[in-house]
């Protein structure tokens, strides 16, 4: 993902954890597309102070993401074998029944292609072991976001 886009996401998720001054610097840069000099003039500090403050803020946002992984989970994004980002998506139906007590399985899901074929397709797509689950149908939204960010999508099943 492009660093600018990634920073915007990190700011959305973790910005409230930054100091107000650093949050405002990042907001002006990534939401208003202001230059470092413009931000410095508006905040009454040097361009270097803005650069240093933004570097420290970005580092803090990356630390939060490293520990919490909210952006990664929200985007349901993974990487291919060459390290490029991609989405791997599937839709299924959660079924009532007992929940397995081993691993981190927390739902019973039925996929239109069947469990065996789903596992084969999912494995061939090569995602990491992380996944995000949501209620509703979101593949069309993910496809639109992927097109905007120029990120490939593997649709496993609908």
Order of helices and strands: HHHHHEEEEHHE
Structural class: mainly alpha
Q: Strand order, main sheet: write it out.
A: 1-2-5
From the alpha-carbon coordinates, what is the Rg to the nearest angstrom? 20 Å
What's the mean pLDDT score?
82
Structure at a glance:
The chain contains 7 helices and 5 strands; from the N terminus they run αααααββββααβ. It is mainly alpha-helical. The relative contact order is 0.14.
Report on the structure:
It is built from seven helices and five strands. The chain is mainly α and 158 residues long. The model has no long low-confidence stretch (mean pLDDT 82). The relative contact order is 0.14. It starts with a helix and ends with a strand. The strands form two sheets. It has a three-stranded mixed β-sheet with strand order 1-2-5, sandwiched between helices. Helix 1 runs antiparallel to helix 2 (20-30).
């Amino acid at each position: 993902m492009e660093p600018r886009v990634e920073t915007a996401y990190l700011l959305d998720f973790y910005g409230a954890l930054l100091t107000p001054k650093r949050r405002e610097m990042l907001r002006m840069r990534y939401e208003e597309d202001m230059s470092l000099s413009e931000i410095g003039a508006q905040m009454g500090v040097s361009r270097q102070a803005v650069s240093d403050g933004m570097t420290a803020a970005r580092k803090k946002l990356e630390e939060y993401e490293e520990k919490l992984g909210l952006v990664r989970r929200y985007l349901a994004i993974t990487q291919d074998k060459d390290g490029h980002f991609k989405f791997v998506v599937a839709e299924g139906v959660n079924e009532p029944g007992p929940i397995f007590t081993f691993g981190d399985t927390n739902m019973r899901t039925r996929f239109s292609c069947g469990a065996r074929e789903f596992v084969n397709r999912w494995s061939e797509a090569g995602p990491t072991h992380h996944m995000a689950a949501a209620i509703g149908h979101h593949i069309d939204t993910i496809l639109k976001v992927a097109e905007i960010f120029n990120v490939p999508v593997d649709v496993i099943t609908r």
